[in-house]
Design a protein that fits this description.
The complex is a heterodimer of chains A (about 575) and B (about 80). Chain A is an alpha/beta fold and about 575 residues long. Chain A is built from 24 helices and nine strands. Chain A has a six-stranded mixed β-sheet, sandwiched between helices. In chain A, strands 6-8 form a two-stranded antiparallel ribbon. Chain B has about 80 residues and is α+β, with helices and mostly antiparallel strands. Classes of the chains: A alpha/beta (about 575), B alpha+beta (about 80).
Chain lengths: ~575, ~80
Amino acid sequence: MRIALIGRPNCGKSTLFNQVAGYKANTGNMHGTTVACAESRVRVGGEVVELVDMPGTYTLGGSNPAEAEVHRYLGRLPVDAVINVVDASSLPQGLELTLELLPLGLPVIVALNMLDEAARRGLRLDGPGLGARLGVPVLPLVASKGRGVRNLFLVARDSANQKRLPAEGAPRTSDARERHVLAEGLAAEFSEQGERYLTLRDRLDDILLHPVLGYVALLAILLAFFQLVYGFGRLLEPPLLALFLSLADRVAGLFAEGSLWQALVLGLLQGVAAGVAIVLPYLVPFLLGLGLLEDLGYLPRMAFLMDSLMHRIGLHGKAVVPFILGYGCNVPAVMATRTLEEPRDRYLAAALATLVPCAARISVVFGLVAFYMGPLAAMALYLFNLLVIALTGRVLSNLMPEETPGLILEMPPYRAPTARAVINKAWFRVREFAVEAMPALIVGSAVLALLEFFRLAAYFNALVRPLTWLLGLPAATGVPLIFGVLRKELSLIMLGQALGTTDYSSVMTSVQMFVYSVFVVFYIPCIATLSALKRELGTRATATIAAITVLIATVAAFAARIALTALS
Amino acid sequence: MRLTEVETAIWVTLVGIEGNDGAEKKLAQFGLFTGDRARVVRRAPLGGPLLLDAGGREIALGRSLAHKILVEPSACGSP
C-alpha cells in the first residue's frame, strides 16, 4: 500500500513524515525545503505502508520543478490514498489544493495541521462540518508534537483498503478561480475568527524586517553564526589533528620505513583525518546553526531583506537560500536552486553558489590564511569573495537578460524549533557527507601518497606549472590543486604532503598563501558539486560553469597577487 | 492605482493584473486573485519587496511584480 502526503509548502508535511519515518525528510520553516520526494516504509497498525513525502505544492498545475515532481509522481506510481496536510491557520488557501485533489479518483484524507497555532491566533475550526461538506474525513493534527498522527494513519489505511473515494455531490470544479472562491466560502463557513491580538510575530518582524534595524540584525545574526561555527571548529580541530598525528606515528611504526604499504596506509589515514579533524569540526556546528535558523523561520526573512541586493546581481531574494547553504556545502546549495521557477535563475544561482566558499574551502582559508595571517586577513578574503561573486553576477546577468516576474514568497510565522528536529537534520546531512564525500577524500589521499611514492607528482606539477608560475606559487602546489577537485580540503591536506611539512609558513610567503587560498576558493567546484550541477542543469551547463570558475579563479588570484605584492 | 503606490496598512481590493498572464498565473499559485482584499504590511528599503497581508497570510512580493497589480482602496477599516 502506498500513501502520499500532499500539501502546500510549509504546511508541515515533512514534520509529519519525520514523526513516523524517523527523520528522512528535510523539514524547514521555509517554502521548498523538500525538493524531491522522500519515501519510507512505516508500520500502521501491523500493516506495512509506503509513505511518500511530496514537495510542497500550491497547485497540481505548478510551474517550478519541485511542483512538477508532484505531478510526475502521481502520474507514475500507483497511490492508494492521499493525505492532504492543510495548515489550519491558512484554511482558504489550503482548501484550494484540497478541491483540486478531490476529483483525482483517490481516497483523500484531510489533516488540519498546526491546530495549536491556529488556536493561538484565535481561530476556531469546525472539522467534522467541513468533512461532511467535502465528503472526506477531516482530522485534527499537531504534527510537531505527534498529536493526532496515529489516528490519521489508521483512518488513511482504512480508506485505502476500502477504496473510500470522496463522496459524490462534494463541491468540485476544474477552474482555479472558482476553486479559489469556493475555498474561501468553505473556510468562512467552517472557521470562526476570534480575538486576534498583536502577536509575537508582529513584534519580532517590526525589528527583524525593519528597513534599518533589520539589516543590523541580519548582519549580527550572520556574524554570530559564523563566529560560533569558527569558535567551535577552532576548539575541536587542533586536538583532533594531534590525535590523528600520534595515531599516524604509531601506524607508521608497524611498517618498514619507506615501504609502499607504509605510504599507502598513511595516505588513507590522512584522508580520514582530513574529513574528521578538519571538515567535521566546522561542518557540524554550521549545519546545527543553519537548521536552527531554518526552523525558526528566519530564512524567508533573509530573502525579504536581501531581495533588492540580489536584484543587483540579477537574481531575486529567494536565491539567497542557495547562497547561505553554499557556506555549508555547495551540493545542497545547487539542489536548492530547484525552488526557483525560471531556468535562467536556476542557472545563474547555481553558477554563483559554486563560488561560495563551502565548509571544506573554509577549512583551507582557516588553515592557511586565518592561522598564519590572522582572522582579519580571512575576513578580507571573504569580502573579496563577495565582491567577485557580485561582479560575476553582474556580468552573467547582463549576458542573460532578466525576464522573471520577480520575488513571490510566503512569509511563515516564527516557530520554535525542536532540538530533536535540528539535531536529526544536521545528522542526516553529516551522514550524507560521510557516505558520499569521505570515500572520495580517502581514495584521493591514498592516490596522492602513491604518486609521491613513485615520484610521479613532478609530472602533474609540470602540467599546471604555467598556472602556478603565473600566480607566483611554488611548483609543488600543482598536485594539491589538481586533487582539490576531488574534495576542496585536499588542497590543504595535500599541500602538507606536497611541500613535505605542515608548517606552511616555512615554505610559503603570506602572499603565496593568500593567493593560493583565493584560487582554491574559486576554481572548479568539487566532484560532488559537479555531479549535482550535472543533475540539475545538464552536462553543457556544468562544463561552462567549471570553465567560468577556472577563469574567475585565475583572474582573482592574479589580481590578489599583484595587489598584495604592491602592498608589501 | 498600483499596489506599489498604496500606503502601508490601507486595505485594498485587487482589481487587475497587468502583463502577459505569467504574473497572474504566478499569483494564482500563491492564492492571490483579482477580487481579493489585501494590505501592504511592510516594505523593504531600496526598491525591495513589499509584504502583503492577504487572508491572514503574509506574502512577500518583489517590486516589479507588485507594480503589475492594480488595486482599488476598500471601504475603511476591516478586511
